[in-house]
């Protein structure tokens, strides 16, 4: 490549990167800086803030009430991510292994729910979980239960709602990873004497682990802040960090404290993303086996 062509190529590459940098600056960096500065300001008596620096909001987060809220959010995120992994990984794996005819149809069925509002789909679960609802009618019709179950506005209902909302992200991440896999490596392992299970654990699972880790990140992080799922299916019984932030913005009108909670939540999610990037590194994956 000549020097002139190289300069034109570099100029074109730089021009393609400008929109990305502008978007990151306008919608990521500037809002984060604003939120960080806001978290150190003093709340006004009625509404807004006073330009007086303080650490009180971060000290307040150390109270048992808010520490327990963060721990509850992390616990729920771990439970939801575990169930999503147990269901989503096999689903994504076998979907990628289907013939083209069935693969496209299963993909269509997976994408159809995205065409409907998430709130409407969650309200559909209210019909399922409510007393004498669809689930109760089925269970009592099969003589599994004798009376209606109180599932609505409970912890299991929130877990199911979270799984329902987030499991497609795990399925698609695993599906993409399996689709790109080199199956000749699996055949080579089988030819060298490895059984189905050993070949899967040492070759298939290892090669699809980046997709699994991507799915974990895409499900774990949102599950800590999907407060509307807890509101709709959990009532006031299940309180997440997102619920506290929403309450501070709407009812408490404490913008600096809501910003401080958001900063801590972003730090936690950044640590999770950093852990994912470290594990997704090829050299790190080699050390797992």
UniProtKB/TrEMBL annotation:
Entry membrane topology: Multi-pass membrane protein
Q: Does the keyword Ligase apply?
A: no
Coiled-coil region: none
- Swiss-Prot/TrEMBL GO biological process terms: transmembrane transport
Q: Which organism is it from?
A: Anaerocolumna sedimenticola
Q: What is this protein called?
A: ABC transporter permease subunit
Which PROSITE patterns does this entry report, sorted A to Z? ABC_TM1
Subcellular location per UniProt equals:
Cell membrane
């Amino acid at each position: 490549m000549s020097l002139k062509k190289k300069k034109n190529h570099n100029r074109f590459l730089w021009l393609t990167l400008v929109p990305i940098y502008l978007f990151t600056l306008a919608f990521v960096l500037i809002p984060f800086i604003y939120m960080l500065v806001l978290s150190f300001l003093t709340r006004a008596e009625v509404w807004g803030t006073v330009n007086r620096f303080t650490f009180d909001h971060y000290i307040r987060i150390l109270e048992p009430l808010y520490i327990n809220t963060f721990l509850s959010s992390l616990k729920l995120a771990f439970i939801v991510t575990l169930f999503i992994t147990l269901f989503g990984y096999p689903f994504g794996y076998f979907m990628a292994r289907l013939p083209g005819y069935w693969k496209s149809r299963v993909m269509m069925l997976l994408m159809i729910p995205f065409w409907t509002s998430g709130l409407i789909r969650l309200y559909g679960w209210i019909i399922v979980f409510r007393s004498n609802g669809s689930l109760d009618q089925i269970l009592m019709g099969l003589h599994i239960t004798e009376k209606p179950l109180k599932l609505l506005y409970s912890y299991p209902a929130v877990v199911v709602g979270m799984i329902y909302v987030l499991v497609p992200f795990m399925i698609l991440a695993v599906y993409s990873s399996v689709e790109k896999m080199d199956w000749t490596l699996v055949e080579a392992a089988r030819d060298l004497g490895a059984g189905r299970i050993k070949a899967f654990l040492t070759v298939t699972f290892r090669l699809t682990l980046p997709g699994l880790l991507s799915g974990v990140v895409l499900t774990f992080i949102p599950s800590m802040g999907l407060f509307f799922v807890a509101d709709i299916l959990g009532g006031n019984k299940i309180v997440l960090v997102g619920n506290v932030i929403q309450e501070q913005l709407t009812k408490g009108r404490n913008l600096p404290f809501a910003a401080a909670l958001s900063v801590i939540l972003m730090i936690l999610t950044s640590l999770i993303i950093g852990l994912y990037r470290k594990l997704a590194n090829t050299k790190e994956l080699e050390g797992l086996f």
